[in-house]
Amino acid sequence: MTARHSRFGLLVLIGVSCYAPAAHALSQQVAREQDIVNLRLGQRYLVDDGTCPAGQVKEVSGAKMMPTGVLAAKKCVPRVGPKTK
């Protein structure tokens, strides 16, 4: 492996590690699902209502466009960072 390949690999690693927290920061956090209004396609909310196992939080995202509006998809995802109120 040449020095050029090593530098390229390091730059890729730094770029990926910087992007991951930024992507998660796009989610908004609410205490209840009822607090989500006007969910848009692709929008994500973290709902900390205690329905997921320890160490996880519910993610509600705008998954599919329907004639009546945006269909919400729900799943439990790992909690990132300390729990907030």
Keywords:
85 residues; alpha+beta; four-stranded mixed β-sheet; 1 helix; 4 strands; 26% helix; elongated
Q: Can you give the mean pLDDT? A: 79
Strand order of the largest sheet: 1-2-3-4
- Helix and strand run: HEEEE
N/C terminus separation: 49 Å
State the secondary-structure class: alpha+beta
Range of strand content: 25-35%
Helix content: 25-40%
* Domains, number: 1
What's the total number of strands?
4
If you compute it from the alpha carbons, what radius of gyration comes out, rounded to the nearest whole angstrom?
17 Å
Count of alpha and pi helical runs: 1
User: What overall form do the CA principal axes indicate?
Assistant: elongated
- Profile the largest sheet: 4 strands, mixed
Low-confidence stretches are: 16-24
Short description:
By secondary structure, the protein is of the alpha+beta class. The protein has one helix spanning 3-24, and strands at 28-30, 44-47, 56-66, 69-78.
Write the layout of secondary structure elements.
Layout: H1 3-24, E1 28-30, E2 44-47, E3 56-66, E4 69-78
Parallel strand pairs: 1-2
Antiparallel strand pairs: 2-3, 3-4
